[in-house]
Design goal:
283 residues, alpha+beta, four-stranded antiparallel β-sheet, 8 helices, 8% strand, globular
């Protein structure tokens, strides 16, 4: 059985190649720093970088589901006391989760704002929902950046441009130089990354909106089934404030977590296979 240092300890079978590759790279400086065992990897001051980030997005996704459930409870309770069944279900109203006169320019605060809109979609801002989304997308982006860092370290794709480590520098079709270098050194890994990268096309846009605007313009929508529940929706085009297409936030984050684990484990598997055929890195 693995240790809390590796993600497989928390979510068995989702990232099994992490431990195998890290063991093979024990001699290679950088892929892992000094290990430190802990019952909960998040409380350890030194931890495997990917395990830490994967645990963070898992916790953020759990918090998102919990806060959406709380929103549903609050909206339904308030709606029952303030609106008759003959009126629209809270449209045009503002439901406060606590007494507050705080007003901001769209930044999330401790109240549920249900504003006028066409159809069943209504704007909603809620601090803890946005905190969970912020943590999820920031850490997801960090996971991708970390994978690029490790691949660059093993395959020597070239010096970093001045600035931060950025996954998009590997998969950007307008600047494919690093992916082309990887293709020459490990064609199977480059093809796998190229095929998987489309799953994360919107990730950087969500991250940028959350970093620069502190908020993603979310909507809520009533479900058809009874009891009527509200879903928190993310715009399909994060940079388009009038986007008419939306994705369910909890389902979308769940899929992204699954996709990033497939990307990590698949990449690690192919790197291990390359070690068997090409010897130890760097290549």
């Amino acid at each position: 059985m693995t240790t809390p240092w590796y993600y497989d300890y928390y979510d068995p079978g989702k990232f099994p190649y992490q431990e195998e590759l890290c063991d093979k790279m024990a001699w290679f400086c950088g892929l892992e720093d000094q290990k430190r065992k802990s019952q909960d990897i998040l409380s350890a001051p030194i931890a495997n970088s990917l395990t830490l980030r994967l645990r963070s997005i898992s916790k953020a996704h759990d918090r998102l589901k919990i806060e959406i459930h709380k929103v549903n409870t609050e909206i339904n309770k308030t709606a029952q006391s303030q609106f008759s069944q003959n009126q629209p279900f809270g449209w045009g109203g503002t439901f406060h989760t606590q007494s507050s006169n705080l007003k901001t320019e769209g930044a999330p605060i401790d109240e549920i704002k249900i504003g006028s809109d066409t159809g069943n979609k209504l704007y909603i801002y809620h601090k803890k929902i946005h905190y969970a989304l912020y943590d999820f997308f920031i850490d997801l982006s960090s996971i991708l950046d970390r994978l690029f860092y490790e691949i660059n370290m093993l395959y020597k794709l070239g010096n970093w441009e001045k600035g931060c480590l950025d996954w998009n520098k590997l998969v950007n079709p307008k600047k494919p130089d690093k992916l082309q270098i990887l293709k020459q050194k490990d064609g199977r890994l480059s093809k796998f990354i190229e095929n998987m990268s489309a799953n994360f096309n919107r990730d950087s846009s969500y991250k940028n909106r959350l970093i620069h605007d502190a908020i993603v313009h979310t909507n809520i929508e009533r479900t058809i089934q009874i009891p009527r529940m509200f879903q928190v929706l993310l715009p399909d085009e994060p940079n388009n404030l009038i986007s008419t297409n939306y994705v369910d936030a909890t389902d979308y984050c769940k899929k992204l977590k699954s996709d990033v684990l497939k990307l990590l484990d698949g990449s690690y598997k192919l790197i291990i296979e390359n070690i068997k055929t090409s010897g130890n890195p760097p290549w």
